[in-house]
Design goal:
Blueprint: H1 21-26, E1 31-35, E2 38-41, E3 46-49, H2 52-55, H3 64-76, H4 88-98, E4 107-111, H5 114-131, E5 139-143, H6 152-157, E6 174-177, H7 183-186, H8 202-210, E7 215-220, H9 236-246, E8 250-254, H10 268-272, E9 278-281, E10 293-297, H11 299-308, H12 325-340, H13 343-349, H14 351-359, E11 367-373, E12 376-381, H15 390-402, E13 404-405, E14 407-409, E15 412-415, H16 423-436
Protein name: Aspartate aminotransferase family protein
GO molecular function: transaminase activity
Cofactor: pyridoxal 5'-phosphate
C-alpha cells in the first residue's frame, strides 16, 4: 500500500485504451498542459494540436467560459440524479441543443460518450419499432469500415475488423453495407467524391436478403472518421435516405465526430442536406472538457415510445450520469462559444485554404491519396511491405517529437484541428508533415 504522503507515478497500473501499452511505457510521450491551439509536452516543448485532441476539442483548449461554468457548478451542485428527478441545467442543455438539430429532431437523450450514444440510439430504434407494432423489426444494419464506439452494440454494427475480432460473435441479427472507399475512381477528391452514389443500393440487397419487415434501422457515419476519413460520394446519403423511406427503416447518423462545426454546420445532416431520424453526438458537445454524449431523436419516434407505454417508465434505459450537472454546464457554455464566435462557419471559411494545404502533400513521399471536407483531412500512405500501419505510426511519433499532434489509423493520417485554427497554423501542419514524410522508410 502506498504511504499517505507518497505520490505514485508508476506507468504500469494504467491499462491504456487503443494503445500499444508495451511500446508506450518504454517510450512515454506525455501532455501536461493545453491552451488554445497547443499542448505542452512533459519534455517542455509545444505541440500544435492538429486533431482537436481526439476529434473533440472544437473550440480550442482551456476556454475560460467553460472552465468557469464547470468550477461554479461543481461548487453549487456536484451531482443530481435524473432518474425520476431533475435539475435545471440538464433541461437547459437539452433545449439549447435541440435548437441546433435538423427540424423535428428535438428530443434529446443524454449519455456520457459516443459509444453510449450509439448503444442508446440502437435501443431507441428497437423500442420504437416494437412500440408501433413492428416487433419483427429487430435487425440492425451498419457498414463496413464503420466506427460506432466500443459498446457491444457499437462494435456489432461497426465494421472495423480489429475492433471486433477479440470479442466473439457480438450481437445477432446484424448485417453490413459495403463501404464507400473507391480509390480507383475517387483518389485525391476535394470534398465529396463524384463516384459511388450507387453503393447505397447495397441496402436493397440486404432488404431482399432479410426482408424489410425484419430491419429496424441503418446506422452510418455521414463522414467516416476513425477508419481514415471516408467522405460520402455525391448523392449517396440522399439515396440511402430514399431507400430507408421506401422500406420504412429508421436512418441513424453517427455524428459523434461530424457534429458541432467539424464540416461547417451544427451537423453534417445540415451541411449535406439529408435528415436522418436519429443523430448520435458527443465529443464537441462539451469541447471535451467533461465527458458527455447525446442522442437527438425525431419527435415522432419519441412520442410513439411514450404514448404506447403503460403508465410509468416508458424507456427502460439510462445512465447514472445522464445529464450530469457539470457536463450540462460545460455543454451550455460550449454551445454559447460556438454561437458567439461563429465557429460553425469557420470550417466553411477555411475549407478551400485547408483543401489546398492538404492536397499540397499529394506528391510527398509515400502519399497515395489526399481527401478533405470541412476541416477534416485524410492523407493515405502506401503501407510498408509486410508491415502495414508501421509507417504511419512512425510518422505519428516523429510528428509529436517535432511539435505536431496528428491521428493515424491504419496507414492514414487524419487531421481535424480545433475550429479556431488560423491559416499560418494550417501551413505549419503541412510543412511539418512535408518535412517528416521523406525521412520515413
Amino acid at each position: 500500500m502506498t504511504e499517505p504522503n507518497e505520490l505514485p507515478n508508476d506507468l504500469a497500473p494504467f491499462w491504456m485504451p487503443f494503445t500499444d501499452n508495451r511500446f508506450f511505457k518504454e517510450h512515454p510521450r506525455m501532455f501536461v498542459a493545453a491552451k488554445d491551439m497547443h499542448y505542452t509536452a512533459s519534455a517542455g516543448h509545444q505541440v500544435l494540436d492538429g486533431t482537436g485532441g481526439l476529434w473533440c476539442v472544437n473550440a480550442g483548449h482551456g476556454r475560460e467560459a467553460i472552465v468557469e461554468a464547470i468550477r461554479h457548478t461543481a461548487g453549487q451542485l456536484d451531482f443530481a440524479p435524473t432518474f425520476q428527478l431533475g435539475h435545471p441545467l440538464a433541461f437547459e442543455a437539452a433545449s439549447r441543443l435541440s435548437l441546433l438539430m435538423p427540424e423535428g429532431l428535438d428530443r434529446i437523450f443524454f449519455t456520457n460518450s459516443g459509444s453510449e450514444s450509439v448503444d442508446s440510439a440502437l435501443k431507441i430504434a428497437l423500442a420504437y419499432q416494437k412500440a408501433r407494432g413492428q416487433g419483427t423489426r429487430t435487425r440492425l444494419i451498419g457498414r463496413e469500415r464503420g466506427y460506432h464506439g466500443t459498446g457491444f452494440g457499437g462494435i456489432s454494427v461497426g465494421g472495423i475488423v480489429g475492433n471486433r475480432r477479440q470479442f466473439g460473435t457480438l450481437l445477432t441479427g446484424v448485417d453490413h453495407l459495403r463501404h464507400t472507399h473507391d480509390p480507383a475512381r475517387n483518389s485525391y477528391s476535394r470534398g465529396q467524391p463524384q463516384h459511388g452514389a450507387e453503393l447505397a443500393d447495397d441496402l436493397e440487397r440486404l432488404v431482399a436478403l432479410h426482408g424489410a419487415e425484419t430491419i429496424a434501422a441503418v446506422i452510418v457515419e455521414p463522414v467516416a472518421g476513425s477508419t481514415g476519413v471516408l467522405i460520402p460520394p455525391v448523392g449517396y446519403l440522399e439515396r440511402l435516405r430514399q431507400i430507408c423511406d421506401r422500406h420504412d427503416i429508421l436512418l441513424i447518423f453517427d455524428e459523434v465526430i461530424t457534429g458541432f462545426g467539424r464540416i461547417g454546420c451544427a451537423t453534417a445532416a445540415e451541411r449535406l442536406g439529408v435528415t436522418p431520424d436519429i443523430i448520435t453526438l458527443a465529443k464537441g458537445l462539451t469541447n471535451a472538457a467533461v465527458p458527455m454524449g447525446a442522442v437527438a431523436v425525431r419527435r415522432e419516434v419519441h412520442d410513439t415510445i411514450l404514448n404506447s407505454a403503460a403508465p410509468g417508465i416508458e424507456l427502460f434505459h439510462g445512465y447514472t450520469y445522464s445529464g450530469h450537472p457539470l457536463a450540462a454546464a460545460a455543454a451550455i457554455a460550449t454551445l454559447g462559444i460556438y454561437q458567439s464566435e461563429g465557429l460553425f462557419q469557420r470550417a466553411v471559411e477555411l475549407e478551400e485554404y485547408w483543401a489546398d494545404a492538404i492536397h499540397s502533400l499529394r506528391d510527398a513521399r509515400h502519399v497515395i491519396d489526399c481527401r478533405n471536407i470541412g476541416l477534416i483531412g485524410g492523407i493515405e500512405l502506401e503501407p510498408r511491405p509486410s508491415a502495414p500501419t508501421k509507417r504511419a505510426m512512425e510518422v505519428f511519433h516523429r510528428a509529436f517529437d517535432s511539435g505536431l499532434l496528428i491521428r493515424v489509423t491504419g496507414d492514414i493520417i487524419a487531421l481535424s484541428p480545433p475550429l479556431i485554427i488560423e491559416k499560418p497554423q494550417i501551413d505549419e501542419i503541412v510543412e511539418k508533415l512535408a518535412a517528416i514524410l521523406p525521412t520515413v522508410e
